[in-house]
Design a protein that fits this description.
With 337 residues, the protein is of the alpha/beta class. The chain has 9 helices and 16 strands. Helix 1 packs across helix 4 (123-132) and helix 8 (286-302) runs parallel beside helix 9 (319-329). The structure holds threonylcarbamoyladenylate and magnesium ion. Magnesium ion (MG) binds at residues 139-140, 148, 177.
Length: 337
C-alpha cells in the first residue's frame, strides 16, 4: 500500500478522519509523540495497528477522546478523583486507566477489563477525533521496541507501506509519551509510566502518588505487572545503550576506557567543551532532554553507532520520564560511579 503524507489543512484532516471512519490506520501527531490511530471500536482496524507495529497482542492501546466528558461512553465507573484530575490536566499528556465497558473490544484493551483514556491537546489530533466521531486507539507510531517517533518523517521511516496515511503536524512538543496512571484508592494514584504530568503536579490534586517500582527497576520474568508495557524491551535503537551515572570527568573516563570504532557518547549541551569523542548532545535541562531524546536515539542509529555511553539525566520532574526511557533503552545496564 502507498502511504500518503497529509498536512494540517482542514481538507486533509477531513481525509484523515474519513480514513479512520472507514477502518484504516493513520499516523497522527500529538503533543507527546506521534500515534498510530484507528477506530478503537473496530476490531479489524485495531488488529491492523498491532500488525503494523509488530506489537504483542497483550499490550493494550490507549483510547483518545475529544473531551473527558466522553469517557462515560467507554467506561463502567469513573472515580471522583479522575474528574478532578481531568479538570486540572486534560486536555494534555495524561492517560487514566479506568474500568472499560463493552464498547471497547478486548483486542483494544489487550484482553484487560480496563482502558487507558487520554484527551490529547494537539489541535490536529483533537480536530481529527472530532471529525471522525470515533474513539481513536493509538499506540506510539514506532515499530514495536524502537524509539517513539516525534516527527512525521520518523513515522514514515517505520510505517511506509504499512498504513494508509500520515498527518504531518510538526514536531511533538513534549517528546516523551503521556503519564499513565491507575487509581489505587479514592485519593491515591499510581504512576505506571512517567511523563510530562509529573508526580509533583499530580500531588496538587491527589493525597498520595505512588511511583510503581517497575519504572526504575527491571521486572522479573513472569512477574505480575500493573501495566503490560512494563514487560517489554522498549525505546531501543539498534545500538547498545549504556547509561552512566556520574559527573562529567568520570563519564569521560568511562568513555575513554571503552572508546573504539562506532562508539558514541550522548552528553548534555553544556558538556561539549573539548569533548574529544564522537558524540551528540541532548539538551541541558529535563524538558529539552525529553524533547530530543528519541530523535537522538534514531540519529545515533543513522550515524552507525554500535555502542553509546549516555550521561544519565536528572530524574526530577519530567526528567523521571527521560530517565525511565533511557534505563529501558539500556536494558537496565547502568554504570554508577
Ligand atoms: O503519549 C502517549 O501516550 C502516546 C500518544 C500516541 O498518545 N501513546 C502511547 O501508547 O504511548 P503506547 O501504546 O505506545 O503506550 C501505552 C502504554 C503501554 O505501556 C501500555 O501497556 C500502557 O500504556 N497501557 C495502556 N492501556 C493500559 C491499561 N488498560 N492498563 C495498564 N496499562 C495500560
Ligand atoms: Mg509505545
Amino acid at each position: 500500500m502507498d502511504t500518503f503524507l497529509l498536512n494540517d489543512s482542514e481538507n486533509d484532516l477531513l481525509k484523515a478522519a474519513e480514513l479512520i471512519k472507514n477502518g484504516s490506520v493513520v499516523g497522527l501527531p500529538t503533543e507527546t509523540v506521534y500515534g498510530l490511530g484507528a477506530d478503537a471500536a473496530n476490531e479489524e482496524a485495531v488488529r491492523a495497528i498491532f500488525a503494523a507495529k509488530g506489537r504483542p497482542a497483550d499490550n493494550p492501546l490507549i483510547v483518545h477522546l475529544a473531551d473527558f466528558s466522553d469517557a462515560v461512553k467507554y467506561t463502567s465507573a469513573i472515580p471522583q478523583l479522575a474528574y478532578k484530575l481531568a479538570d486540572r490536566f486534560c486536555p494534555g499528556p495524561l492517560t487514566m486507566v479506568l474500568p472499560k465497558n463493552d464498547r471497547i473490544p478486548m483486542v483494544t484493551s489487550g484482553g484487560l477489563d480496563t482502558v487507558g483514556i487520554r484527551i490529547p491537546s494537539h489541535p490536529v489530533m483533537h480536530r481529527i477525533i472530532e471529525l471522525s466521531g470515533c474513539p481513536i486507539a493509538a499506540p506510539s507510531a514506532n515499530t514495536s521496541g524502537y524509539p517513539s517517533p516525534t516527527t512525521a518523517g520518523h513515522v514514515m521511516r517505520d510505517m511506509q507501506g504499512k498504513i494508509a496515511a500520515i498527518v504531518d503536524g510538526g514536531q511533538s512538543d513534549f517528546g516523551v509519551e503521556s503519564t499513565v496512571i491507575s487509581f489505587d484508592s479514592e485519593d491515591t494514584v499510581r504512576i505506571l509510566r512517567p511523563g510530562a504530568v509529573t508526580r509533583e503536579m499530580l500531588l496538587e490534586v491527589c493525597s498520595d502518588v505512588i511511583i510503581d517500582p517497575a519504572i526504575l527497576h527491571e521486572v522479573e520474568e513472569g512477574a505480575k505487572v500493573a501495566s503490560p508495557g512494563m514487560k517489554y524491551k522498549h525505546y531501543s535503537p539498534k545500538a547498545d545503550i549504556i547509561m552512566v551515572e556520574s559527573n562529567l570527568d568520570e563519564f569521560l573516563n568511562v568513555v575513554e576506557k571503552n572508546y573504539g570504532e562506532d562508539v558514541y557518547a550522548l552528553i548534555f549541551d553544556g558538556d561539549t567543551c573539548n569533548c574529544p569523542y564522537r558524540h551528540m548532545t541532548y539538551g541541558s535541562d529535563s524538558s529539552q532532554q525529553a524533547h530530543l531524546l528519541f530523535q537522538r536515539l534514531r540519529e545515533l542509529d543513522e550515524a552507525g553507532a554500535k555502542k553509546v555511553y549516555v550521561r544519565a539525566p536528572s530524574p526530577e520532574g519530567i526528567g523521571l520520564a527521560v530517565y525511565n526511557r533511557l534505563i529501558r533503552a539500556a536494558g537496565f545496564e547502568v554504570i554508577r560511579i
